[in-house]
């Protein structure tokens, strides 16, 4: 398809979503905002803040378009690594590790979470704070709450976001994020901010947007509260015997480490891991292959993709190695 045809298709796609969206009804939108205002004020939100934030606001058509057109392209783990855990991001992470090593070590001591995993998640989510997103969070969440597909979920997120503003943790100008409402160094939705955000520097605000210590401590707290085990690895890279097969599955059932080793699996580097520790085998097509442990699943609490968790750990291993 040539570029002109692509542009024409994109134009008509956008036009379809504009035409099919309920936002064309100005009166319906205004009524919706008024009902939201009543609910927000009943929760203690300042009327002045609400009115200031929603003044002249309309739903974001780009958010609606992105919500309906997310790609479903299937790629290999190696392809995923090349796009999300490439050598540039790893090298950038190494420089950030040197810069923030005292802070990262302090977080590891306080939360019991591997400092390299904290760093890697920061790199995956916001490229070490270099890209926090450009979508206004309140307007984005209002758009998705006004839409009918997941209205209740995003309405709750929107109300929490208004509390974040009302309590002064961030101002509206800097309250920006991705198209679906995640924001800050950890890329939290407001409900995750409410549950996991930390005021690490003690200034009275849980500022994950412009305060790096708060942002990284919030990542550590997220992993800690989801069950991170301080003295266990996330995974170990392995080589497989020729006869090993999972019949097309990426992740095996659980066995003890000793049982896996008896089947001919070998670690790629020396390890003193307990032979009694429960483990599974992660064998994405084309490799690399890993023996994964409980902490792999804790990383997946951040994002339920095996590829995501594998890339976080892969980057962490390489960023902090000498």
Structural write-up:
The chain has 322 residues and is α+β, with helices and mostly antiparallel strands. It folds into 3 domains: 24-68 and 133-196, Helicase, Ruva Protein, domain 3, CATH 1.10.8.350; 77-132 and 198-225, no CATH class; 235-292, no CATH class. 52% of the residues lie in helices and 7% in strands. It has 15 helices and 7 strands. It has helices at 3-20, 26-42, 47-54, 61-68, 77-84, 87-99, 101-111, 115-126, 137-146, 151-166, 190-196, 212-225, 257-262, 294-300, 306-319, and strands at residues 135-136, 176-177, 235-239, 255-256, 266-267, 278-282, 289-292. The protein has a 5-stranded antiparallel sheet. Strands 1-2 form a two-stranded antiparallel sheet. α11 (190-196) crosses α12. The chain is elongated and about 70 Å long. It starts with a helix and ends with a helix.
């Amino acid at each position: 398809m040539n570029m002109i045809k692509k542009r024409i298709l994109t134009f008509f796609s956008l036009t379809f979503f504009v035409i099919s969206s309920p936002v064309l009804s100005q009166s319906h939108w205004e009524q919706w905002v008024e009902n939201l205002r009543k609910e927000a004020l009943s929760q203690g939100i300042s009327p002045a803040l609400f009115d200031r934030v929603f003044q002249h606001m309309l739903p974001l058509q780009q958010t609606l378009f992105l919500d309906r057109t997310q790609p479903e392209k299937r790629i290999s783990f190696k392809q995923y690594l090349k796009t999300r855990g490439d050598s540039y991001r790893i090298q950038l992470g190494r420089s950030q590790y040197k810069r923030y090593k005292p802070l990262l070590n302090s977080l590891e001591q306080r939360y019991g979470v591997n400092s390299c995993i904290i760093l890697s998640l920061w790199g995956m989510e916001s490229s070490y704070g270099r890209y926090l997103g450009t979508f206004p969070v309140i307007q984005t969440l209002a758009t998705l709450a006004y839409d009918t597909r997941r209205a209740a979920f995003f309405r709750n997120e929107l109300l929490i976001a208004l509390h974040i503003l009302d309590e002064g943790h961030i101002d509206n100008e800097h309250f920006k994020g991705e198209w679906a409402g995640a924001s800050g160094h950890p890329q939290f939705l407001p409900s995750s901010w409410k549950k996991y955000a930390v005021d690490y520097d003690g200034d009275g605000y849980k500022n994950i947007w412009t305060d790096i210590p708060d942002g990284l401590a919030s990542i550590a707290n997220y992993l800690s509260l989801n069950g991170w085990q301080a003295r266990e690895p996330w995974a170990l890279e392995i080589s497989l015997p020729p006869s090993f097969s999972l019949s097309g599955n990426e992740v095996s059932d659980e066995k003890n480490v000793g049982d896996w080793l008896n089947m001919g699996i070998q670690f790629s580097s020396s390890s003193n891991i307990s032979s009694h520790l429960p483990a599974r085998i992660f064998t994405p097509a084309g490799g690399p292959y890993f023996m994964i442990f409980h902490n792999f699943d804790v990383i997946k609490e951040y994002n339920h993709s095996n590829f995501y968790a594998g890339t976080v750990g892969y980057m962490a291993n390489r960023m902090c190695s000498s």
